[in-house]
C-alpha cells in the first residue's frame, strides 16, 4: 500500500496516475480561480 492510499483516499486505485492527475488539476484550478476572483475583488479590473 502506498502512502497515497491512506487517510481519506481509502479506495483501490487512489494512487493511480489518473486519480492523481484529476486531483491535481481540480486543486490547481480552484487555486487559480480564487486568485483571479481575489484580484478582481481587490482591484477594479474590467
Describe what you observe in this structure.
The protein is mainly alpha-helical. Helix content is 57%, strand content 0%. It contains one helix and no strands. The mean pLDDT is 81.
Mean pLDDT value: 81
Query: Based on CA inertia axes, which overall geometry fits?
Result: elongated
| DSSP strand count | 0
Distance N to C terminus: 50 Å
CA-based gyration radius: 16 Å
Unreliable sequence segments = none
Give a short summary of the structure.
The protein is an all-alpha fold. 57% of the residues lie in helices and 0% in strands.
Task: Provide tags for this entry.
single chain, 46 residues, mainly alpha, 1 helix, 57% helix
Secondary-structure blueprint of this entry?
Elements: H1 17-42
Amino acid at each position: 500500500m502506498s502512502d497515497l492510499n491512506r487517510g481519506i483516499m481509502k479506495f483501490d486505485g487512489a494512487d493511480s496516475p489518473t486519480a492523481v492527475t484529476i486531483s491535481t488539476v481540480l486543486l490547481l484550478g480552484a487555486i487559480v480561480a480564487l486568485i483571479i476572483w481575489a484580484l478582481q475583488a481587490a482591484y477594479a479590473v474590467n
